Amino acid sequence: MPYPLDDRDGHRRCRDCGEWKSLDEFCANSRRPDGRGSYCKPCFNLRSKVSYAKRTREKHGREVRQPPVVPDGHRRCPTCGETKALADFPRNRSGRGGYGRYSKPCHNEKGKESKLRLYGGSREYHLRRRYGIGQREFDELLAEQGGVCAVCLAEDPQHVDHDHRTGWVRGILCFNCNGGLGQFRDSPTRLARAITYLRGTTWQRALIHPGVYQMCSPTRGRPPSPRS
């Protein structure tokens, strides 16, 4: 015999489980004056699953496949079919519970497949997403530089240098030069001061006669300590 639907200070008794719960814990029902149904959300979901299984059995003559039981703090990856701890899934703020759907190995493999299908490979994907150019534009810019780093002239540079304020690509640099500009924060003032500093602290070789050079001491700094 169903329980009476007496409301008490914004609460209602669920017809199935018989528990008193707040109206917010009941499913929406536009046909009722308060906009809430007779069953709490867990009971309503259970009823919906049972009803769906019954309709599938009667209409199509097959049973609904039951999902595997997953312990708390775990998730089943639909690709590899393994049940793993949540720590084995990548973080995803839009995903259920803050984690992605696929385990980390499967997620990475799917990412590689997508990059290969959409961009032809990870290199093209990286260039397009971060710098807005492809491998073809990269090769054209490198050819304009003579195939060398735009700063130190080292051969076969592989790093795209861009203006961090505007995003515009400036050239192709080697690893050291690209990192050096980043360490100096792309500041001409800091670079100029570094040049002045080096000139004032580095020994220079001065030509005093054809074929004869003399080492000139820096204007400031200390000589290295003698080795013992």
Automatic annotation (TrEMBL):
**Which Gene3D superfamilies does the UniProt record give?**
His-Me finger endonucleases
**Hydrolase is among the record's keywords:** yes
Q: Does the keyword Nuclease apply?
A: yes
Q: Which Pfam families does the UniProt record give?
A: Endonuclease_7
Q: Which InterPro entries match?
A: Endonuclease_7, Endonuclease_7_sf, His-Me_finger_sf
GO molecular-function terms, A-Z: endonuclease activity
Q: What SUPFAM superfamilies does this protein's entry cite?
A: His-Me finger endonucleases (SSF54060)
**Keywords, sorted A to Z:** Endonuclease, Hydrolase, Nuclease
Q: What is this protein called?
A: Endonuclease VII domain-containing protein
